[in-house]
Amino acid sequence: MESIEETKAYIGMWVTADGYIRHELLPNNRYDEARGNRKSAYQGRFKVTGNHIDYKDDTGFTADGEFKDGILYHAGMILYKEKN
What we know:
The protein is 5% helix and 60% strand.
């Protein structure tokens, strides 16, 4: 498992421009995805390797994405990191 130092730039909330999809990447390599009014629609683990992210939700479904220029491209979606 990668260290927090390798993933800390990606930790936080990532949202689509319309705010409908929200991925919270947590420091413990877990994620919580909300869709619309449905909080915690999907939850699971993630692993970052370089600028690539692999997701595996708690039901076993897998997906991936790429970080490029501060944007997360995932499953046809474009997500932006929320500023704190």
